[in-house]
Amino acid sequence: MQMGDETRQRVKFTDDRVCKSHLLDCCPHDILAGTRMDLGECTKIHDLALRADYEIASKERDLFFELDAMDHLESFIAECDRRTELAKKRLAETQEEISAEVSAKAEKVHELNEEIGKLLAKAEQLGAEGNVDESQKILMEVEKVRAKKKEAEEEYRNSMPASSFQQQKLRVCEVCSAYLGLHDNDRRLADHFGGKLHLGFIQIREKLDQLRKTVAEKQEKRNQDRLRRREEREREERLSRRSGSRTRDRRRSRSRDRRRRRSRSTSRERRKSSRSRSRDRHRRHRSRSRSHSRGHRRASRDRSSKYKFSRERASREESWERGRNERGSTDWRLESANGKAASRRSEEKEAGEI
């Protein structure tokens, strides 16, 4: 479908309405135009300016339009092959049944006819291009193939009755699904194999094979890139997990260090508190011990003073008894009075000391 100026300004080559096969110069509507199998105008947009835009853009980035073009050509060739099989089936139903041996001989004649037609078409093309020497060499090969064909036709004629041999035997072309006759002359064969229809189908089939190869290579490259990105992503995830693990380990280590420091601090505080309590208990014990010792010493001094006073008193009484016996009663009373006075003074003195 051709575009007007207004449409051309709006549509880009990436638009879905644009024929991707046309951008790759392999649309069957273009290739088979003017033949007996002319497909008419393509339902999608064809424009040479868009093809030029695509060729420029494809040099900078991969647009992968080959996949769309490959699907288009595969669909077209599949339909052509289906027509070929139907034509073969109709021929088998209408033509007289022959034996396998005769069929093989007829097939050999058809193959030689095809070879002659291809060589003649190539010779004509080289002659049109001005390459006369190469064209002459190919014509010499054509003569050799013609001799082989004559021998094959003799073998085929001798293998069946004359009435059956005169019947026209047809064959379906595997490339373009056209009918070929067993007894076609060289001109008819050259016109077929050098014709636009047959060459167009060859171009389409070759382009399809090329697209399949290109798509396979690009898909393999994409798969490798995807696999490489996946490996890089997995490697980054592993590194991230390792980094996270090291971070968690550092956090755990710092947490353990903090717990250890708190534990040591708590232990020191407990030890300090224990030592403080021990010192307090020791101080209280020492204080009680000193108090007890002072009380014990005070009690000892009291007991010692009392014992000393009792012993001196007993000694004085004994001395007094002894003096009373020695002196008279008068002296005894005087001494007794003096002794009592002295005794009271001594007792008061001792009491004061105590």
TrEMBL record:
Q: Which residues form a coiled coil?
A: 77-155
The organism's place on the tree of life at top rank: Eukaryota
Q: Where is this region: Disordered?
A: 215-354
Return the GO cellular component terms, semicolon-separated.
U1 snRNP
Q: Does the keyword Coiled coil apply?
A: yes
- GO molecular function annotations of the record: mRNA binding
Basic residues composition bias: residue spans = 241-300
Q: Which GO terms describe its biological process?
A: mRNA splice site recognition
Q: Which InterPro entries match?
A: Luc7-rel
Q: Name one Pfam family in it.
A: LUC7
**Where is there biased composition of kind Basic and acidic residues?**
215-240, 301-334, 344-354
Which controlled-vocabulary keywords does the entry list? Coiled coil, mRNA processing, mRNA splicing
Q: Which PANTHER family match?
A: RNA-BINDING PROTEIN LUC7-RELATED
Q: Which family does it belong to?
A: Belongs to the Luc7 family.
- What protein name does the entry list? RNA-binding protein Luc7-like 1 isoform X2
Q: Which organism was this protein described from? A: Camelus ferus (Wild bactrian camel)
